[in-house]
Amino acid sequence: MNLANKITLARIFLVPVILFFLLIRFDLGTVRFEDFELTYTQIIAALIFIIAASTDGLDGYLARKNKMVTNLGKLLDPLADKLLVAAVLISLVQMDKLSAFIAIVIISREFAVTGLRQVALLEGAVLAASTWGKWKTGIQIAMIIALLLNNFPFALVDIRMDIILSWAAALITIWSGIDYFVKNRNLIPVE
């Protein structure tokens, strides 16, 4: 169990902590600016999400830099990413902050690309993250943060960045999924 794998495990263990602050009803107070309102539990959940999301790049960087890439890490890292994003997306749907359609599109793409990666591994190939995949991740994280923070600070100037980011995330997610499958169509058995 090296440092990179410990960081990945920490990301997995942060998922239920985020869900606790998002879904368990208790009052720590509210921040108000004119018509804008944000609970402290939302702020805490958003901060923990930001920390967890930032560990994604950190664990991979440390594993490659220190030549600590392991099979456990190859398994846990994408699992941790999927758990974090899927759990928060489902919570946002439960909280009526995100359309179920967008959550289903994003989660379905993750399952599909994970399946393609598994097929690639069976063929002895590794699918590296594409540029579109990296954009997808960045937009999804920005969308989740905007939704967790009730569109702060954009709500103060009447810009619905949460909605813009939600649809941008859905579209880029679809496009990046298509991109993976088109570029790796040779791995898909057609019989």
From TrEMBL:
<dbReference type="InterPro" id="IPR004570">
    <property type="entry name" value="Phosphatidylglycerol_P_synth"/>
</dbReference>
<dbReference type="GO" id="GO:0008444">
    <property type="term" value="F:CDP-diacylglycerol-glycerol-3-phosphate 3-phosphatidyltransferase activity"/>
</dbReference>
<protein>
    <recommendedName>
        <fullName>CDP-diacylglycerol--glycerol-3-phosphate 3-phosphatidyltransferase</fullName>
        <ecNumber>2.7.8.5</ecNumber>
    </recommendedName>
</protein>
<feature type="transmembrane region" description="Helical">
    <location>
        <begin position="38"/>
        <end position="62"/>
    </location>
</feature>
<keyword id="KW-0472">Membrane</keyword>
<feature type="transmembrane region" description="Helical">
    <location>
        <begin position="7"/>
        <end position="26"/>
    </location>
</feature>
<keyword id="KW-0594">Phospholipid biosynthesis</keyword>
<keyword id="KW-0443">Lipid metabolism</keyword>
<dbReference type="GO" id="GO:0005886">
    <property type="term" value="C:plasma membrane"/>
</dbReference>
<comment type="function">
    <text>This protein catalyzes the committed step to the synthesis of the acidic phospholipids.</text>
</comment>
<keyword id="KW-0444">Lipid biosynthesis</keyword>
<dbReference type="InterPro" id="IPR050324">
    <property type="entry name" value="CDP-alcohol_PTase-I"/>
</dbReference>
<keyword id="KW-0812">Transmembrane</keyword>
<comment type="similarity">
    <text>Belongs to the CDP-alcohol phosphatidyltransferase class-I family.</text>
</comment>
<feature type="transmembrane region" description="Helical">
    <location>
        <begin position="139"/>
        <end position="157"/>
    </location>
</feature>
<comment type="pathway">
    <text>Lipid metabolism.</text>
</comment>
<keyword id="KW-1208">Phospholipid metabolism</keyword>
<keyword id="KW-0808">Transferase</keyword>
<dbReference type="InterPro" id="IPR043130">
    <property type="entry name" value="CDP-OH_PTrfase_TM_dom"/>
</dbReference>
<comment type="pathway">
    <text>Phospholipid metabolism; phosphatidylglycerol biosynthesis; phosphatidylglycerol from CDP-diacylglycerol: step 1/2.</text>
</comment>
<keyword id="KW-1003">Cell membrane</keyword>
<keyword id="KW-1133">Transmembrane helix</keyword>
<feature type="transmembrane region" description="Helical">
    <location>
        <begin position="83"/>
        <end position="107"/>
    </location>
</feature>
<dbReference type="Pfam" id="PF01066">
    <property type="entry name" value="CDP-OH_P_transf"/>
</dbReference>
<dbReference type="InterPro" id="IPR000462">
    <property type="entry name" value="CDP-OH_P_trans"/>
</dbReference>
<dbReference type="GO" id="GO:0006655">
    <property type="term" value="P:phosphatidylglycerol biosynthetic process"/>
</dbReference>
<dbReference type="InterPro" id="IPR048254">
    <property type="entry name" value="CDP_ALCOHOL_P_TRANSF_CS"/>
</dbReference>
<feature type="transmembrane region" description="Helical">
    <location>
        <begin position="164"/>
        <end position="182"/>
    </location>
</feature>
